[in-house]
Design a protein that fits this description.
Blueprint (H helix, E strand, L loop, with lengths): L2 H9 L4 E5 L5 E5 L2 E7 L4 E7 H10 L4 E7 L2 E7 L5 H15 L2 H11 L5
Antiparallel strand pairs: 1-2, 2-3, 3-4, 4-6, 5-6
Helix pairs in contact: 1-3
GO molecular function: DNA binding
Keywords: DNA-binding
Protein name: MmcQ/YjbR family DNA-binding protein
């Protein structure tokens, strides 16, 4: 996945705001809560996940996924964008967004993404 494709994906999610962050990274938030960071220079993202998801991703493909930091029940995983297809990145970013979004917003967005079939 390219940086441009990632930006189109993340900025297309409901109520996402973008702002400069630490270490030359761009942060993405939903209602003030961070869920993803982009390093254009490294062509990588850090995305919020569960501890279990972080462990599974790193175990499955350590050349693409690496652990970042962990806090409470959440963990962050670094993803090398050129190594991953767009569908997989979309799943990870949408899940990170869902973990940070208020429950009502997340529920309404899930209906929108699934076409209202749920």
């Amino acid at each position: 996945m390219s940086v441009e494709e990632f930006l189109e994906l993340v900025l297309g999610l409901p109520e996402v705001t973008e702002r400069e962050s630490f270490a030359d990274m761009t942060g993405f938030r939903v209602r003030g809560k961070g869920f993803c960071y982009l390093s254009e220079a490294k062509q990588s993202i850090m995305v919020k996940a569960t501890r279990e998801e972080q462990a599974a991703l790193v175990a499955d493909d350590p050349d693409t996924f690496s652990p970042s930091w962990t806090s409470g029940r959440f963990a962050w995983v670094e993803v090398k964008l050129p190594n991953v297809d767009a569908g997989h990145v979309a799943e990870l970013v949408i899940e990170g967004w869902r973990l940070s979004a208020p429950k009502r917003l997340a529920a309404s967005a899930l209906e929108e993404f699934s076409g209202g079939d749920r």
